[in-house]
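Now for a concrete sample entry.
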Amino acid sequence: MSDVVLVLHSNPVTSASFASTLDEIGFTATLANDAEAACKMIRISRPDVILLDGEMALSDPTLCRRLRTCSPEKRLPLILLIPQGAEDVSRYLCGADADDYLCQPCQISELQARLMLCLAANERVDVRPLPHIDFSFLCDLSNLALSELSHSEIMQQVVSAVAGQIEVNRCSILLLGQNSDDAMVMASSDDLGVNGLHVVLDRYPEIREAIKSRRPLLIDNVFEHPLMEAVRQHLQHGVTNSILVLPMIDREHIVGVMVLRSARPISGFSEDEVNFCQLVANMATSALRMADVSALDGKVRSRVPVSTTVSNDGHVSQLDIAAKDLRVLVSVVDGYCMLFNETADRVAPGQNEIISGLMAGNRKLVDMASDLLDFSQLNSGSYRLDFAEHDICQLLGAVVQELAPIMSQGNIHLLNDCLNQEKMVVCDEHAIKRVFYNILNNAIKYTPEGGEICLGLRELDGEVRIFVRDNGPGIEPEKIASLFDEYTTVSSSDPKAGSGLGLAICEKIISAHHGRIWAESFLGQGSCFTFCLPT
């Protein structure tokens, strides 16, 4: 696989010229014309080096640091592109935090040499090796999900174990409040009695930024990073030099953050340390959710006579337990897969495809286990819905943004009729996003490369009607009526098919909202899925 070069330049003609040249010399080019687009490309395409317009860096001294912040998992080399004949080259380099520079226009051989030297130097960067990981801790963490421990006890075990693996002054876990403006410290490795401490997030810009970006945030030097400027006066030398913040995301919703603070003389955290901590944060989130479900399941069972449970809901309870156990186990494997994937450049040749296949297969298992658990809870009445007023267009937009990279890979064009609209409905935010995710993801699966998907919203007869139309192969008429039945797929031999529960879950969620959902399709022309919510 060729190295990826991100070209960030204000002149699109110059960017296109570099893209053509990079292609000639064996690199893959991605282009951006502003900082926001560049950060988005860094998160999607994971470039290996950046060619940066020197004029842009000159006008914004924080630009280089902001670009590096978008990729805490690995260090990004930056090469400044400086105009030929610039009188004072140092003016561009001073404070830019770049690794090298090129005067443009330049010879192709010089560009190739600078890129190769920069990439080679980056591989030789002295990175702290990850201390020996006690993998039994990760297995123990998976078992915490099914234990009788409280949230704070689970989190205390997690932060203590992380602090024992990585050299930090403090590892803490905070759960967010309803409005994400405040949080509660659930556990801290340096203070066993901190549980329940309320904090206002205005005082913690690093946490607010990680919540906003939904990605790990690395502050390699708190005394120089522009994000910390407003609170720098409160920081003490020798107490914290570097901060790592990892979002804890459950069903697309950020429920908390894991924060590591280090006073090591060498600033920052290694790539391995970031990967390991993200793995632990993911598993801790799953443990929290499983603990919630276990506690709720115990309360429900305690209120129902044993005979009723066995005769009416025995199969549901067994499915609950099986689904929880399965999801915990596959989540552990998924975490290991993520760790392998982030260090794919270190594995033997030919093993990347094996890891990719393992990740894809295990991801499907995670989704199937989640479907099983959600379906079981919807059937038993233990699936909790939190109704509040939300802008349905904003919810749809969040899902579109999440699936945008997949549509881009398939060159699928989305016609979004919901842009610049606002329509408030009373619903459960995460449940409705789950419905729309399932429907749009199905449309993407069955839309051919270069195809088109249309998303629309209409208000009619006291309800909001949302539809997703694709131009895929369509569905046979005799299968339309059973599409929303459990364990139903379009074709049992279709490799794209999932658990057969996705649409059944959608139907139950929409019914719980007193809405309607249906499908229309014509063979060879595509399908249209529609759901309605009362206004």
